[in-house]
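Session log. Operator J.P. requested a structure for one protein chain; no other inputs attached. Running the standard single-chain path with token output.
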Amino acid sequence: MSEALISANHISLSHHGKKVLDDVSFELKTGEFITLIGPNGAGKSSLIKILLGLIIPDNGKIKKSRHIRLGYTPQKFIPNRFVPISVIDFLKLNQKIDAQFLTTTATLTGIETLLYLPLKNLSAGEMQRVLLTRALLAKPNLLILDEPAQNLDVNAQMHLYKLIQDIHKQQNCAVLMVSHDLHRVMKESTQVLCLYHHICCMGQPETILKDAQFNDLFADQMDELMATYEHHHNHDHKH
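Structure written below.
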């Protein structure tokens, strides 16, 4: 049976008297790909910060495997335009990295031509790839990605999601990804966790699509989502 890399047990959090998270429990095992979805303000980023130890919950506990190696990309990262730091120096910041491993990882994420550029000059898509590279340099067995495709154009989103999928499969790295892109969620995830302060539903994508609470939360996207998912599902069977 696969080991749980990280477990959330009865996590609750309030902010200014308002409940942000209410009795949230789940676990993520070796090799799993869980996508965390939910409306804006549902508590997704707060849950991620609690898992990372950046916020202490009001109630509940986070349990981490002693074998866990975490890589993390934040939802937003804006470099200081007055600090003249290159991409490669940013990647090396506060960590000692083998030069060959850095080169191999930069090639994997497609940033080898960016290494000596100023960090402040990167586009949103380039910055996301750099952040992912830095996360991978920790040699993680769990990647936590907080809306990695936010503010990217469609083409950049597709490339980034494909890269994350490849890393998951080739390196057997577990992934916990926050996403608003339901089309991608349904195609890549082994499990989907739908959060709206509490866990509304959790399970395999095919099961979640039939869940009443999921349908209520994402009613405005369901027609397009179902068409896209069914096409992908049938496409898989033909091959």
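Operator note: Residues 4-79+138-238 form a domain with the Rossmann fold fold (CATH 3.40.50.300).
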